[in-house]
Design brief:
5 helices
Length: 303
């Protein structure tokens, strides 16, 4: 399994995931460029949706399928529980059509939902088809997906929700890393600090698996060395970065589903002319639902 770290607070939501796809048959990496987190922005629910587990089989790609489902759901702008239930039911139906022995998959959703006029509360949700949790104890997948929703509507001294999907053993194997991350969350660190800490944790997990692979050639390294970071605030503002070994390498636009603009597989190439002119070449799939939409690409943070 890959790694997906998800955080929800009253002021920011963050997901950090590795970008590796690993072959079931021989454990070899098939790709280091799979995006596993999508921004969903509606009036009733604003969130990040990430996933781990079955990635590709025949013509199926879980990331592409998820993007299409969120795009369809966004048109109706359902409230939180209906949003999660529709995604759960769609996963049950679609995964039943896939001809593969192991279909274990989990979707993690973090963000906010509307509780009143101009009032939102943080939530975290998990959608999964494991027979039992955690996934390591599940021999296979179940016939249907199920969901769990945790909401935070009352004031709390430490208002945050942290979830780890995929290689969940890391929580036991690297307790100091997660203790430090929780310490930052308790102190209400800003979004950039939280996502930076999550990147370092993801990079440390990948490095630990590399050492395990060196000591035992039969060990399958499922967590890649490259990470995707997506930050979202309650206004809908998005920041996203790609990194290698926890160090930010360049800006990478997130896949976004919203009433205004929907994007997928966007890439930015940055060049500098001899006279100092900076040129950005943006390519990918984009649909705008309103005229005069402006796009901006954030600068990579110095970390």
């Amino acid at each position: 399994m890959s790694i997906l770290l998800s955080v929800a607070t009253p002021y920011c939501a963050t997901q950090v995931s590795d970008m590796q796809v690993t072959a079931f048959a021989d454990g070899q990496p098939l790709s280091e460029e799979q995006r596993k987190s999508i921004v969903y922005s509606g009036d009733n629910v604003r969130c990040l949706v990430g996933w781990v587990g079955l990635a590709t089989i025949d013509r199926h790609n879980t990331g592409d399928w998820l993007h299409g489902q969120l795009d369809a759901i966004n048109a109706d702008d359902p409230p939180l529980e209906l949003f999660v239930q529709r995604l759960t039911d769609s996963a049950t139906l679609h995964f039943a059509t896939l001809n593969v022995r192991d279909k274990r998959c989990e979707f993690t959703v973090v963000g906010w939902f509307r509780v009143g006029p101009d009032r939102y509360a943080a939530f975290s949700a998990a959608i999964f088809n494991y027979e039992v949790r955690p996934w390591e104890l599940s021999a296979s997948h179940g016939a249907a997906f199920h969901y769990q929703i945790t909401v935070q509507t009352r004031p709390s001294k430490h208002p945050y929700m942290l979830s780890v999907a995929g290689y969940e053993e890391a929580v036991k194997e690297m307790p100091l890393f997660f203790r430090g991350l929780r310490g930052l969350l308790k102190r209400r660190a800003e979004a950039g600090v939280i996502s930076g800490a999550c990147r370092q944790v993801a990079a440390a997990i990948a490095a630990m698996q590399t050492k395990k692979k060196a000591a035992n050639p039969k060990f399958t390294k499922t967590v890649g060395d490259s990470q995707l970071t997506v930050e979202l605030d309650m206004s809908g503002s998005v920041k996203t970065f790609s990194s290698k070994d926890g160090i930010v390498s360049h800006s990478l636009p997130a896949d976004v589903v919203s009433p205004v603009i929907t994007t997928r597989d966007m890439q930015v190439e940055r060049t500098v002319d001899a006279d100092g002119t900076i040129r950005l070449n943006i390519k990918g799939w984009i649909r705008t639902n309103r005229p005069n939409v402006m796009m901006s690409v954030p600068a990579s943070p110095q970390q």
